[in-house]
Design the sequence.
């Protein structure tokens, strides 16, 4: 009995000892994990560390945020810190977390290299470092990760070749590989003996990969998603590979250098190889210069197919009617090919079609009236073909139609009035056809047209309909080169959003209405080659927005001065008007009248006597006011000072009248989309800008004033304009803001006089950085999240020392998302859905598709702004009016043909004091800005960087060029010894 007791005692002791040893063992391991994590934390820059506030000794490691332990709570198995705004480098000590199965640091701003030691994390099944700023090569050590199922390194700045080991490590369990959107080069290293049998997603788009699609990929028979778009891959379309992929759903091969079979003449084998993929949904082969006909078998592809992109190739022949068996197709893009024959009416049996683009081919015959059956159609682009006949009446059924582009065909007949039933039409372009008859009032009354109406170069006759005045959202109207007659209705002045109006080359008579000069955003106005008479209204000259004007070849008469909007015009704008005289160079002088001489003499006499007196009395006053201005309270971006002044909550209408000289035209300094801006001086000498909201325009966006005030009051940032006070009466609403001495960025980029932009690259980078900081604050840090919605150079103001301030939140939207910080009642403005957002050229493409305003939309506009600054071209340039856009134009030069753009930018913006050999620095900076601009303007909103990333990146660039020692280093390297 005793023996047994002793034995039990012994075994119990053994048990205790064993347990204690195990415990210490465990805590040693967890200790190691803790040390590795703390070392990781120390690699994060301090102002981002607050995210990891709970990573302290008082809290168990397993309870730290982003950490998951195993069941025994003795090892860290998951580290997930995605989207936490972390900045810094990735510590190699993470490799000590030897039980880690999941490492997710995606959507942060990590810089530097990927530590090769991560290859020692043998238990890892999921590694995601996507959407950071990582650079350097992909370490070959990652090939040691035999258990890896999910690998995502997309959207970084990785370069160099893909290591062989990555796809070839013996027993690959990889199901998901995403290396897209980097700068990776070389071939895809998938050797024949390597098999990725489990692979379902293979994403390598937007890199610099060359060579063929490796045949060994055909072993990946579970592949569902293959995206190799935008590389430099060559060879025949990979028929033999895709044939082995019955589960394929998405195949993207656009923008490479693939060819079709039999010396680029036969597409049939490739389409045949896809016939058995019964889940197939999207096919993209655009921009490859593929030759051949569209094979009959295209109709035998899966009926699940939703999108086909074959544009920008060399595909010839006709469109096979058999394609209509693809009943689920929503998008068909065959534009910019060599297609001929007629448009098969069967096409319209695909009842789900939303976007049909057949432009820039040689299609002939009539437009099938069956298009009226495609009730979901939103975009129909048949431009640049050889289509004849008239526009079918059946378009009236297309209630979803937003864009109808039929320009550059041989269409005849009249414009069917029934088109007026397309109540969602935003763009109607029928220009360059042979359309005759009158402009039906049903069309001219289309209130929905908010982008443009182009009917130019046709045979339209009759008068301009009065109903044109209903188009109060349209930005551009072009009716030039027709046979229109009658007078210009003064109601045109109601088209308040108009920026472009071209009526040239018609038979219009009578005088120009005064109201046209009052259009608040009109920048271009052409009435040349008509029969107009009378004087040119003074309102045109007084317009602050008009830049391009053409009055030539009419019968205008009277006196024209070279002031205001006319100061930049030459005689070319006035040719062929024998009755005009005045001070434009080349124009005959007007006959002077006598009383002017008298007045002149009186003035001289007066000034002789009065000036000395004025000097004695007034000069000290001016001196004093200058002195006070220097110490005025609203000088620079000090937040506290701004709020101090809000203790005067409102200002009276009379005070504003006094400050602005009764809102005199001479104090008008600009116009935003929804109001005019006047400069003024308050009694205490504060220089102010008074933004008077145009009530008529503001009606369109109810709550705009309230919204802007709310936003301005809640935001505090050195790069956002601060509100001084407001004036609000039922019939008058104005915001009072500090006057920015240097005006808007727009004025500096496009000065009306002189050729040079004036700002150097250091200043421009600093301005971009300021704007990015201000926007990042709006998106990520302000008390209410704000989507600006209308970011463009005229909404960026510059103060004394060229600090940029973002302004004009008139149509900004507050974004109440599910984050509790934002769940504040006063911040929901959902009623703004569907309102015109942004300005042409800067609008994100998804807005056209009815997506709501988003921070990604702002990122897009910012990207356009960057490219605009670099190229010196407005995104609204005529060059970009149709089809292509500024960012697409730049992208088409990227990366190998950028040199002229870069050189031109260096010439324009390199600081004059800098010797030429330092140009290398500027080239680097400009290239980085272009890349950033292209990243921001990516088509897919979700792949654009966040404003915070952008701000961070430009901040880095700003630091780089403002660091003199770096420039010095660069200089030494460059100088020939
Ligand atoms: C840590 O988490 C565990 C389980 O989630 C919980 O029971 C424990 O109270 C937490 N400890 C601390 C100090 O938060
Ligand atoms: C069309 O697509 C829907 C949804 O993907 C699917 O349910 C349906 O079966 C498809 N139609 C045909 C004829 O394949
Ligand atoms: C289309 O073009 C081909 C040559 O590419 C030509 O042989 C054929 O006759 C044309 N068809 C029509 C209808 O014009």
Sequence:
């Amino acid at each position: 009995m005793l023996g047994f007791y002793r034995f039990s005692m012994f075994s119990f002791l053994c048990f205790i000892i064993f347990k204690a040893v195990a415990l210490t063992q465990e805590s040693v391991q967890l200790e190691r994990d803790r040390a590795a994590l703390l070392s990781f934390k120390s690699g994060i820059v301090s102002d981002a560390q607050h995210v990891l506030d709970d990573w302290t000794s008082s809290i168990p490691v397993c309870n730290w945020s982003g950490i998951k332990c195993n069941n025994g709570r003795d090892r860290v198995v998951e580290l997930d810190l995605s989207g936490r705004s972390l900045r810094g480098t990735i510590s190699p000590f993470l490799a000590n977390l030897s039980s880690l199965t999941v490492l997710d640091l995606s959507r942060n701003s990590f810089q530097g290299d990927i530590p090769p030691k991560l290859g020692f994390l043998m238990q890892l099944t999921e590694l995601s470092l996507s959407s950071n700023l990582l650079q350097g090569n992909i370490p070959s050590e990652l090939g040691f990760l035999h258990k890896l199922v999910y690998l995502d390194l997309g959207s970084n700045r990785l370069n160099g070749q893909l290591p062989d080991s990555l796809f070839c490590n013996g027993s690959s369990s990889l199901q998901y590989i995403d290396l897209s959107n980097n700068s990776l080069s070389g071939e895809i290293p998938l050797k024949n003996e390597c098999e990725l049998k489990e692979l379902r997603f293979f994403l390598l788009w937007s890199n610099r990969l060359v060579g063929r699609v490796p045949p060994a990929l055909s072993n990946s028979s579970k592949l569902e998603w293959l995206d190799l778009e935008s590389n430099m891959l060559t060879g025949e379309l990979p028929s033999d590979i895709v044939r082995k992929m019955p589960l394929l759903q998405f195949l993207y091969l656009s923008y490479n250098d693939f060819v079709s079979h039999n010396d680029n003449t036969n597409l049939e084998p490739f389409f045949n190889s896809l016939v058995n993929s019964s889940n197939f949904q999207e096919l993209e082969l655009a921009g490859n210069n593929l030759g051949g006909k569209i094979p009959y078998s295209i109709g035998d592809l899966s009926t699940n197919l939703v999108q086909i992109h074959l544009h920008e190739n060399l595909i010839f022949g006709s469109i096979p009617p058999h394609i209509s068996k693809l009943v689920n197709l929503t998008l068909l893009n065959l534009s910019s090919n060599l297609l001929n024959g007629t448009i098969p009416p069967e096409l319209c049996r695909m009842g789900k079609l939303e976007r049909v683009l057949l432009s820039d081919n040689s299609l002939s015959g009539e437009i099938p009236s069956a298009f009226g059956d495609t009730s979901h159609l939103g975009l129909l682009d048949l431009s640049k073909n050889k289509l004849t006949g008239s526009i079918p009446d059946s378009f009236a059924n297309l209630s979803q139609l937003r864009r109808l582009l039929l320009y550059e065909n041989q269409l005849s007949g009249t414009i069917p009035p029934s088109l007026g039933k397309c109540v969602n039409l935003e763009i109607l372009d029928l220009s360059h056809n042979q359309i005759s008859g009158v402009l039906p009032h049903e069309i001219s009354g289309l209130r929905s047209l908010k982008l443009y109406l182009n009917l130019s170069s046709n045979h339209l006759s009759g008068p301009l309909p009065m109903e044109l005045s209903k188009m109060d959202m349209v930005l551009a109207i072009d009716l030039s080169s027709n046979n229109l007659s009658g007078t210009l209705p003064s109601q045109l002045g109601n088209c308040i959003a108009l920026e472009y109006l071209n009526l040239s080359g018609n038979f219009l008579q009578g005088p120009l209405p005064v109201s046209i000069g009052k259009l608040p955003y009109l920048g271009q106005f052409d009435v040349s080659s008509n029969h107009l008479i009378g004087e040119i209204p003074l309102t045109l000259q007084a317009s602050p927005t008009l830049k391009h004007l053409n009055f030539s070849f009419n019968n205008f008469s009277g006196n024209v001065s070279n002031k205001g909007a006319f100061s930049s015009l030459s005689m070319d704008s006035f040719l062929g008007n024998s009755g005009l005289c005045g001070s434009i160079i080349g124009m005959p002088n007007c006959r002077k009248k006598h009383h002017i001489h008298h007045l002149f003499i009186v003035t001289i006499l007066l000034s002789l006597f009065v000036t000395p007196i004025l000097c004695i009395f007034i000069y000290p006053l001016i001196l004093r006011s200058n002195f006070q201005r220097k110490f005025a309270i609203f000088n620079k971006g000090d937040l506290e000072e701004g709020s101090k002044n809000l203790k005067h909550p409102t200002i009276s209408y009379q005070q504003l009248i006094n400050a602005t000289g009764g809102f005199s035209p001479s104090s008008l300094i600009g116009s935003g989309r929804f109001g005019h801006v006047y400069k003024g001086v308050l009694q205490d000498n504060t220089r102010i800008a008074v933004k008077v909201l145009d009530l008529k325009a503001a009606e369109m966006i109810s709550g705009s004033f309230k919204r802007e005030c709310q936003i301005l009051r809640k935001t505090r940032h050195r790069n956002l304009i601060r509100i001084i006070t407001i004036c609000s009466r039922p019939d008058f609403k104005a915001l009072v803001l500090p006057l920015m001495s240097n005006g808007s960025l727009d004025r500096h980029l496009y000065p009306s006089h002189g050729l040079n932009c004036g700002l150097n690259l250091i200043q421009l980078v600093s301005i971009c950085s300021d704007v990015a900081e201000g926007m990042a604050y709006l998106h990520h840090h302000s008390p209410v999240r704000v989507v600006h919605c209308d970011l463009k150079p005229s909404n960026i103001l510059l103060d004394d020392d060229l600090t940029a301030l973002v302004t004009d939140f008139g149509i900004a939207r507050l974004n109440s998302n599910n984050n509790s910080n934002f769940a504040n009642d006063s911040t929901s403005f959902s009623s703004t859905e569907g309102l015109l957002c942004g300005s042409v050229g800067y609008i994100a493409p998804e807005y056209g598709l009815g997506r709501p305003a988003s921070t990604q939309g702002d990122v897009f506009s910012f990207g356009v702004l960057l490219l605009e600054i670099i190229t010196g071209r407005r995104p609204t340039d005529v060059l970009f009016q149709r089809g292509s856009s500024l960012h697409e134009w730049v992208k088409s030069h990227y990366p190998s043909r950028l040199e002229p753009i870069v050189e031109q930018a260096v010439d324009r913006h390199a600081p004059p004091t800098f010797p030429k050999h330092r140009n290398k620095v500027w080239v680097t900076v400009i290239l980085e800005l272009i890349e950033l601009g292209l990243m921001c303007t990516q088509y897919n909103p979700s792949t654009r960087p966040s404003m915070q990333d952008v701000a961070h990146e430009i901040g880095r660039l700003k630091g780089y060029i403002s660091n003199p020692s770096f420039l010095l280093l660069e200089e030494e390297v460059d100088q020939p010894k």
In short: Residues 303-304, 327-328 surround 2-acetamido-2-deoxy-beta-D-glucopyranose (ligand 2) (CB under 6 Å).
